[in-house]
Predict the structure.
Amino acid sequence: QLQLVESGGGSVQAGGSLRLSCAASGYTWCNYDMNWYRQAPGREREEREFVSSIDSNGSIRYADSVKGRFTISQGNAKNTWYLQMNSLNPEDTAMYYCEADPLQSFCPSTWGQGTQVTVSS
């Protein structure tokens, strides 16, 4: 069963940078697109905001709010994904989650436990 663990969150001042990591472990024969979402303080799980994704073909998408500031990538070992976040602002404050979104309908979606990012002005 696939498991995801995020890390790299922390507290920074506006204009600062952080790099989040999402490490996958466990056996699976499913194929996944990898997504980053964030949940702002006071928001419900259903209100998680899409941040970025990289699909199994390497195609990348970003939310308009992070374009030009955030960069998603996959590590050489193919079991770790990164979200480089630059020029952070207080509106980026949120819990950040990675999600493995399966291509096969009978495979489960998997979420990590999240990593907190706090940006102060």
